[in-house]
Specification:
Structural class: mainly beta
Radius of gyration: 13 Å
Number of strands: 8
Strand content: 35-45%
Distance between the termini: 27 Å
Amino acid sequence: NRLLNGVTFADRMHGILSLDVPNAEPEYWYTEDGGATFTQLELPLPEFEGTYYFKADSLRIDPEDESWTLTLGQGNYGQRKAVLTKTTAESGWTYAGWGEKPASGLG
C-alpha cells in the first residue's frame, strides 16, 4: 500500500511524484510525457537522524541552461527541504544541500 504524497510538474510534460511507502523510504517517479508513463528514480539523499519523509515539493527546469532543480519537503513532519540538481535532462541527480521551510509555513 503506497500513498501518493506529492506531485510537481516543471511544465506540462516533465513531472515528479512521490509515494509514501509503509516501513520504507519514499519512492520517486518521473514522467517526461505528461504522465502517460512514469519511471522510478533513485535519488542521492543523505541519511540523517529524525524523520525521513520527503515529498515532491517543486521541480524547475531553467530555460537558459536546461539545469534542473528538485525540492523535496517533509510536509507536516518537519521543516527540512532537500534540494537536488542536475545539469541536463540526461545527467544524474546530485544532492545540493538542505533548505528550511519559509517562516510563513508556506512552501
